[in-house]
């Protein structure tokens, strides 16, 4: 019924309306994707007149490259930790700010400001903050803990610093989404739960959280794609170091492609990165549909 | 969400909130305190006296304005087309655009670098505006289409009966109704284009053309790693952003929550 009236309503050709947007997407994004596929089968530095064919050797080289696997491993660890912590915090913030608390707006602004500041602007701040000259060192010294804050130069800690930065930056996003979702929840249902004698935490995790499932799935998709796209934070704060400890696919592709002119190798990794991103999006989408 | 009766618990919740917020404030304090190290407020004067700050801001404004204009026009028209018009193979086109949503920026670098150099577009604002627009469009089209789907078809039909053509229907009926989603699109595009780092880094080599996200790097060269002045520059970049956010708080929050895929 609905469809029928739509067809009747406007039968005129709609193609010109989507054409400009489509040209943009085709001309820049699909162009780059096909260009990348082509490059991935070459052994080329971008300058040589001769583009030496390489077959699939870039791909076999990649699967034997420990740094490539390190980047994959870092992406997975980074995704798991940031996804869980950031959304847990965002969820709790949203619940607290939906309760009767004082100065709610100020807290809201303070959590939200990080999401609007560019990682590029904040990177020097974090480099200082996690160095022995930074504010954290002063706090640790104040309590006479004897801890030296030089975590960015420690292979086993640098990744956690980057995760802190990512969580700092994106909690506002999780918060605002959960906050919006919670405004939709039926107040009477919550009251009934309280009347049944369920405590606040119990209500929160067995009533409110399941009702925000749609939001959580959206955040899952944003999280997976976001983790795969990660570039600014590691590149600007650690440049993937020390000794590739914080290498991500994005930073490694940049290093290989732009810095060292191994265009074919960088393109091969880009192809894998693109496939992972699409598979991730399809899987979460499937998951989303099943929920409904 | 929390139902709290006793005064003790009220205070407890307030304290929990305060403790949770502190880690979010520490980097901001670090930024400000760090910018006052060494010569104090003279750091700001030194940064300002280089005379480059307004240039970098101007460039960011030009780029963001360009991107916002293009994204606004093309997401509105495409959203309308995908939602309300008859297009052969519509679903295929829509999926092609959605796939582009997942594209990591870094994949664009080499192809565009080589191509822009061939087309003499390297080191022009277009080299940044066009790719950012292409990266922003898929998501904004999705938002616009979803919003347009909520506009009743009867409205279109009524307009048609009154003799309006497609363009008039779009201009007089759809466009005024889409204001809420349009403001979200503008805000999201503003944040993403203003904060864009990788494309300006690679495609704008001339310091007179660079954007605010590249300021820290510029000052690293200029002040040979005098952290205090680099942080003063960071504060000067952050403050206008924070002010604009505070002035348009509701729009920003609405824009961000539109960011959830439906």
Topology:
The complex is a heterodimer of chains A (292) and B (262).
Chain A lengths: L1 H8 L5 H25 L2 E2 L8 E2 L3 H7 L2 H32 L6 H13 L2 H11 L5 H8 L12 H29 L3 H9 L4 H12 L1 H17 L2 H6 L11 H11 L3 H29 L1
Helix pairs in contact in A: 2-14, 3-14, 4-8, 4-11, 5-8, 11-14, 13-14
Chain B lengths: L6 H29 L6 H8 L3 H32 L5 H10 L9 H10 L7 H24 L3 H9 L4 H12 L1 H16 L3 H6 L11 H8 L4 H21 L1 H10 L4
Helix pairs in contact in B: 1-12, 2-12, 3-6, 3-9, 6-9, 9-13, 11-12
Low-confidence residue ranges of chain B: none
Query: What structural class should be given to the helix and strand makeup of chain B?
Result: mainly alpha
At the fold tier of CATH, the topology name of chain A is MetI-like fold
What are the secondary-structure elements of chain B, in order, as H or E?
A: HHHHHHHHHHHHH
Mean pLDDT of chain A: 87
Helix content of chain A: over 70%
Description:
The complex is a heterodimer of chains A (292) and B (262). Chain A has helices at residues 2-9, 15-39, 57-63, 66-97, 104-116, 119-129, 135-142, 155-183, 187-195, 200-211, 213-229, 232-237, 249-259, 263-291, and strands at residues 42-43, 52-53. Chain A is an all-alpha fold and 292 residues long. Chain A has a single domain, classed as MetI-like fold (Orthogonal Bundle), CATH 1.10.3720.10. In chain A, helix 2 packs across helix 14 and helix 5 crosses helix 8 (155-183). Mean pLDDT of chain A is 87; it is low at 1-10. Chain B contains 13 helices and no strands. Chain B has 262 residues and is mostly helical. At the A-B interface, helix 1, helix 2, helix 4, helix 5 and helix 6 of A face helix 1, helix 3, helix 4, helix 5 and helix 6 of B.
Short overview:
The complex is a heterodimer of chains A (about 290) and B (about 260). With about 290 residues, chain A is mainly alpha-helical.
Salient structural properties:
heterodimer, A: 292 residues, mainly alpha, MetI-like fold, two-stranded antiparallel ribbon, 14 helices, 2 strands, globular, disordered N terminus, B: 262 residues, 13 helices
